[in-house]
Amino acid sequence: MKAKLFIYVLLLSNFSFGQTQVLLDNTWYLEKFVINGSDITYTDNTSYDHIIGFQVLDNNILLASSYCLTMFGLNGNVSNNIFTYDGFYQLGVPCQFSSDDLNMFNVITTFYLLPNNDFTFTITDVNNYKKLIFVNPQGNSAIYNNVNLNVQSSNIVDKLTTYPNPVENILHFKSDFEISKIKIFALDGKLIDSNLSFSGNQIDFSNLKSGIYFLEFEQDGQVTRKKVVKR
User: Fold this and answer.
1) Residue pair 111/71 in contact by the 8 Å Cβ criterion
2) Are the CB atoms for 223 and 154 separated by under 8 Å?
3) What is the pLDDT of residues 105-152, one digit of tens each?
4) Per-residue DSSP letters for 133-190?
5) Virtual CA dihedral for 41, 48, 129, 157, nearest 10 degrees?
């Protein structure tokens, strides 16, 4: 009986570690919130995608949450599929919000910024992508995918690829559209360069520290973001 219990605990531990690694390896795009049994998602008047990402930072795990640009970060840790944070920071990045954007902003902050800060999560495989379900202490859910299923996203999203990823020195990108500007952000939302230089669809990453970055590609007012890992 003790042997069976040990095997069960070992399998559970390996499963939890595997889920944590999947959490870290992906960028997560909001599908919807489920608040008090009601679905809340984007409207025709919301202008941005809500995205979260995770990174190991000083032996902790940082959750960075963005809508327009990074709004806040939660510094915590993961154990047995529970994310617990004990540190919080907020970045006052100016964005042009419609009333629907402001409503979404309020839903996001209300969901995460609670006195009880234990969040359970599960990750499952759905068709060709992964689904993350975050449940807050009030029993409300935030459902994310590692691909952007938001039909309002920019037309250039599926027309742009970046490689290799992770990158060591030179990042290549390929697009059916002519890119007019590229911005680069750190995971915590800090703008590193508002007009990143590029040549021949190549971006030089050699001077950047190892970590997770977001590249924001712009073409005729349309914008999409790509997560890039620098080794």
Assistant:
1) no
2) yes
3) 999 999 999 888 899 999 999 888 899 999 999 999 999 998 877 644
4) EEE-TTS-EEEEESS---TTS-TTGGGEEEESSSBSSEEEEEESS---EEEEEETT--
5) 140
Q: How far apart are CA 14 and CA 156, in angstroms?
A: 38
* 132 vs 53, higher pLDDT: 132
Q: How far is CA 146 from the centre of its chain?
A: 8
> What secondary structure letter does DSSP report for 37?
T
Query: Regarding beta strands 191-193 and 202-204, do their DSSP bridges make them parallel or antiparallel, or are they unpaired?
Result: unpaired
d(CA 170, CA 168): 7
Q: How many CB atoms lie within 10 A of CB 199?
A: 7
Q: Does the CA dihedral 111-126-79-87 come out positive or negative? A: negative
For residue 93, the model assigns a pLDDT of 58
Pairwise CA distance, residues 67 & 108, whole Å: 9
Q: How many residues does the chain have?
A: 231
* 3-state SS, residue 92: coil
- 10 Å CB burial of residue 46 (0-12, 13-18, 19+) is buried
CA–CA separation, 196 vs 27, rounded Å?
A: 22
List of residues 6+ apart from 211 with CB closer than 8 A: 55, 186, 187, 229, 230
Predicted TM-score (pTM) of the model is 0.66
- Cβ 169 vs Cβ 205: under 8 Å: yes
Q: Which amino acid is at 228?
A: V
